[in-house]
Amino acid sequence: MNDVLIDLKNLTFLYDGEKVLDDLSLQIRDKEFVTLLGPSGCGKTTTLRIIGGFLTPHSGDVFFDGKRMNDIPPHKREVNTVFQRYALFPHLNVYDNVAFGLKVKKLPKAEIHKRVTEMLETVNLGGFEKRNVSQLSGGQQQRVAIARALVNYPKVLLLDEPLGALDLKLRKEMQLELKRIQQQLEITFVYVTHDQEEALTMSDTVVVMQDGVIQQVGSPQDIYNEPQNAFVADFIGESNIYDGIMLKDCLVKFAGVILPCVDKGFRRNQPVDLVIRPEDIKFVDPAETDLTGTVTSVIFKGVHYEMEVMVNDLLWVVHSTAAKTVGETVGLAVDPFDIHIMEKMFATDKNYVDGEVVEENTVEFLGVQFERENLGLPVGEKVSLVIDPEDIEVVSEDISDATVYLESLIYKGAYNELIIWLNETELILHSQNDEQVATDIGVKFDFDKIEIKPFAGDGEAGE
Amino acid sequence: MKKLVSYPYILWMLVFIIVPLFFVAYSAFTNDAGNFTTVNFTSIAKYTPVFLKSLWLAVISTVICLLIAYPLAFILSRKSPRSQGMLIMLVMLPMWINFLLRTYAWMTLLENEGLINKFLELLGFGTVQMINTQGAVVLGMVYNYLPFMVLPLYSIMCKIEPSVLEAAQDLGAGRFQTIFRVILPLSRTGILTGVIMVFVPSVSTFAISRMLGGGSNMLIGDLIEEQFLGGAYNPNVGSALSLILMVVILIIIGVTNTFDSDEMEGMLV
């Protein structure tokens, strides 16, 4: 099965010294509808622009039909792009916009006319030929942009958040229409979006990205039902994500209860993340279950009620068509195959970092210094530090000990688990506040609580 | 209220534009005694070569300004906002100094004993006649009027979205195709404005031709000045010359504008 059309190999792209793409590899098959999905700043648009030829990767290769394309300029590539804000030519009417690519290629007039007319029919814009593009609605401009790209019969169509500017109803219509066009013309679509619902609706394959790294590649069903990690679970659909411990194969302890599940292959007593979708939780008689709690909020969502239930100090979000009342005591049940176990994104439950005594009673780690009375260690001595996630606090940058890059934030039922980067080292911390991911934030350490141990070698100090 | 505010401006235009125009027209069609005559117009047929020369030099200056300003404006418009501000200031900087002073500076540079000739002598080229030539006049006009070409072009090019140029590339257009199919049509109004802004003052200039062109390069502007302030004192002929120059300019602007279509501007917004 050698129908790989686009092959991205180990792409790295830097912007202002920061890694936007980090060793990204991806294969896109012929006639496939692939969606690059992720929050803003995850590198999805950069990937698309590299395929289109508007950006050159700093390292890595782009293969197209087996040929290396790195140095081929955009106008010589067999791909066409639908730009974020359409980028129609304001001085040309609908017909001339669509005909642009064919006129550039100096095709015979009759052929141009035939193809443009055909393509305008395909996008339901027959009869709009003479219209000025500025007189069109957003949805119509969108169709012109799609026709303008597709009329060149590209092997691949790149779409950069093409529906972002449309309102919800129109967006849903256009989603189905794009899917129809893709199937009708049998062209490979590479689609960039941050809207997970859009990705699930249209794609054959979804590529979930975060921070320039692919988190998971799979069919919409795979991505939704078997998320690889807490980030994917959190980003796709709604979910309850908790810390758990795998007691043994098919048995997990979390939220103060022990429940059977269907996952195998984890170490005994391995800490894991687990995800339960709100629609997979059922209400049962409180007497029949260990999972009992109090309803704290009920919101009507149209198709279902969204209810929040406090169970052993953990918040459970439950979707059900049966409404409960706030304050009611309820029992919850989950089928074993609806509990999805995932490797933790952060390997350990605490932060283990190396430090060094730089002055008497002063320790430095990752560029941060703190004092500890009666340290009793000579200057130059290396030490290992253990920092509890609870002992790092998010504060405003002007009173912080360090400015860090917030990579991910996931709600764990009682607190947010944040993964941050400080001097190229990942740290984990717990916070009650929401922060914007993919931005810089300030953190403050509770230095008195940092545990200082004898140096245990490079990397993790271990237990 | 709105009307009231506009009165001073209407009055201003009446007193300083409409009424003087009327005087010029009156003077052009009368003689010393104040009787109607067309002799002022028939007598200036001999100046036709001066007219043609003025138009020719203005055309050359305008074309040179356009050739310099067009790429410059495009490059400027693609820079980061910060460097754009700084570079535009550099373009405008000479305009902060009085026009006559700037032209005097060129005189001292271009003179036979001037800085440039001294440098050329050092290199062994000998003295080159630069001052009092048509080339010096064109240079003076290009130097003085270049900002008037750059600014309208720059402001229109800032409105061309980078993504539109990328779209052209994406659709197979190379550099030249992108310029001719996208950038030129989208900057047409800027070109027209710039051309008028440079051509009109160039065709009627007199100081530049006087200072850099010497007596041998008389232009219409000089001719008109002669009739009012110089030895050939004859305000009636001067008025007739002014009137003809004005008509010629109006015709040229009119012709230029027919290349323009007002739908363009609406689309760029």
Structure description:
- The complex is a heterodimer of chains A (463) and B (269).
- Chain A has 463 residues and is α+β, with helices and mostly antiparallel strands.
- In chain A, α2 crosses α3, α2 (94-104) packs parallel to α4 and α3 crosses α4 (138-150).
- In chain A, strands 6-7-8-3-9-10 form a 6-stranded mixed beta sheet, with helices on both faces.
- The two termini of chain A are 47 Å apart.
- Chain A has helices spanning 44-52, 94-104, 109-122, 138-150, 168-185, 196-202, 220-225, 230-235, and strands at residues 4-15, 18-29, 33-37, 59-64, 67-68, 79-82, 156-160, 188-193, 205-210, 213-218, 240-248, 251-254, 257-260, 270-276, 281-284, 292-300, 305-311, 314-320, 329-334, 340-342, 351-359, 362-365, 368-371, 382-387, 392-395, 402-411, 416-422, 425-431, 440-445, 451-454.
- In chain A, a hairpin with a 2-residue loop joins β4 (59-64) and β5.
- Chain A contains 8 helices and 30 strands.
- Chain A folds into 3 domains: 4-230, Rossmann fold; 231-342, OB fold (Dihydrolipoamide Acetyltransferase, E2P) (Beta Barrel), CATH 2.40.50; 351-454, OB fold (Dihydrolipoamide Acetyltransferase, E2P) (Beta Barrel), CATH 2.40.50.
- Chain B is globular and about 70 Å long.
- Chain B has helices at 2-28, 39-42, 48-77, 81-92, 99-110, 115-122, 134-157, 162-170, 175-186, 188-203, 207-213, 220-229, 235-258, 263-268.
- Chain B has 2 domains: 1-37, no CATH class; 47-268, MetI-like fold (Orthogonal Bundle).
- The interface between A and B is medium-sized, with 28 and 22 residues.
Question: What labels would you give this structure?
Answer:
heterodimer; A: 463 residues; alpha+beta; Rossmann fold; OB fold (Dihydrolipoamide Acetyltransferase, E2P); 3 domains; 5-stranded antiparallel β-sheet; 40% strand; disordered C terminus; B: mainly alpha; MetI-like fold; globular
